[in-house]
Design goal:
- This protein is mostly helical and 152 residues long.
- It has a single domain, classed as hpI Integrase, Chain A (Orthogonal Bundle).
- A three-stranded antiparallel beta sheet has the order 1-2-3.
- A hairpin with a 4-residue loop joins β1 and β2.
- It is globular and about 60 Å long.
- It starts with a helix and ends with a helix.
Length: 152
């Protein structure tokens, strides 16, 4: 699931609601029909490694859920003998790790393309303000490079 979040930018809850019939193999894309907003219902590009993982996970099925069990249930079942508070903490940690993968996706796509609108659309954001968190302003190297190029 981590790789799917990192390579698609889908939020974890949308990855867990993926359906096999929404995968378009010829276009290497997935239609996210389960998004909460109109912006989150979109076509999502699939990397080759995500396609490979989906082939393994789906095993030739033509329909149904890609994931048969949510991450929260997996964490809970593994920790069934642990305290309720520990289960909740593990569930929260699993969610944070997956959201870190989403942040990695947004940051990488922005740094590579320098196209904030593309990042906004690919992540299903309805507001540039939401997407701006993936644009890191603390790096001065691009500014130096731009000025040096101009001064040539």
């Amino acid at each position: 699931m981590f790789i799917t979040v990192q390579d698609t930018g889908l939020p974890p809850d949308e990855v867990f609601r993926m359906r096999v019939e929404d995968i378009n193999l010829s276009e290497r894309s997935y239609f996210n029909a389960s998004g909460k907003t109109k912006h989150s219902r979109r076509w999502v590009a699939l990397s080759q490694r995500v396609l490979d993982l989906l082939f393994l996970r789906c095993g030739g099925r033509q329909d149904g859920w890609v994931c048969r069990q949510s991450a929260a249930n997996q964490v809970t079942s593994r920790q069934s003998r642990k305290s309720s508070g520990r289960r909740e903490m593990l569930r929260a940690c699993a969610s944070l790790v997956l959201y870190a993968a989403r942040h990695t996706y947004g940051t990488f796509v922005y740094e590579t393309t320098k196209n904030l609108q593309l990042v906004m659309n690919s992540m299903g954001h309805g507001s540039v303000r939401t997407t701006m968190r993936y644009q890191h302003h603390d790096r001065l190297e691009p500014v130096r490079n731009a000025i040096d190029q101009r001064n040539l």
